[in-house]
Design brief:
The chain is of the alpha/beta class. Helices cover 46% and strands 11% of the residues. It is built from 9 helices and 5 strands; from the N terminus they run H-H-E-H-H-E-H-E-H-H-E-E-H-H. It has a 5-stranded mixed beta sheet, with helices on both faces. Helix 4 crosses helix 9. The mean pLDDT is 95. The structure holds uracil (URA). Uracil binds next to helix 4.
């Protein structure tokens, strides 16, 4: 099965998912979007109000900032795959519960296997905590373990702040977020070759 067929199949299952109670209150599930062979796959937390309305990830305020920061790091948003740990909006934007994260984790792992990115970027604590044990990531908070590539065989994992967290502390976190993404982009260019987006490795040195 080709990778896009695989992603469509996962998407169809998410659209009809009733595995946790969040399906009752959702307007639209938000499976994720991006090229089926994207070298970077970004993982957020959960859809908010605008995502629930539109069925698209990161279209609210945090999403606009994410788009800007990706551009600043040298990649258009349309060149990366963007999804979240859970695919349906929790009421009132509360944090996802353990059972909801567990019910949704299989979809995320299948999406990663289908896209086969070079780097999976975990944005924020919910993304970090949901995969920390699965991928045996080091302990410590985001400030401590971000900005490093953890090799997990088929792909590398990079931890960074959630764009909503960047919104609350822009001066400090925005440059960090951009530098973390640049590290991921550099790795992608190394692996996929300089043809990807016409980027040259030397643009990412130093
Ligand atoms: N925040 C997330 O973590 N995911 C979205 O899709 C939107 C906002």
């Amino acid at each position: 099965m080709k990778v896009n067929e695989e992603l469509s199949r996962i998407r169809a299952r998410i659209m009809n998912c009733t595995a946790c109670p969040l399906h009752v209150g959702r307007k639209n599930p938000v499976p994720g979007e991006g090229p089926a062979d994207a070298p970077l796959l970004l993982v957020g937390e959960a859809p908010g109000r605008e995502e629930d309305e539109t069925g698209r990830p990161f279209v609210g305020m945090a999403g606009r900032l994410l788009t800007e920061m990706l551009k600043e790091a040298g990649v258009p948003r349309s060149s990366v795959y963007i999804t979240s740990v859970i695919k349906c909006r929790p009421p009132g934007n509360r944090n996802p519960k353990k059972g909801e994260i567990e019910a949704c984790r299989g979809y995320l792992l299948e999406q990663i296997a289908a896209v086969r990115p070079e780097v999976v970027v975990l944005m924020g604590n919910v993304a970090l905590n949901s995969l920390k044990e699965v991928w045996k990531l080091p302990g410590g908070n985001i400030g401590e373990i971000s900005g490093e590539l953890y090799d997990r065989g088929d792909f590398k994992v990079l931890v960074t702040y959630h764009p909503a967290g960047v919104l609350r502390d822009r001066r400090r976190k925005r440059p960090l977020f951009v530098s973390h993404i640049r590290l991921a982009v550099k790795e992608a260019v190394k692996k996929r070759g300089e043809g990807w987006l016409g980027l040259r490795l030397e643009e990412f040195e130093g």
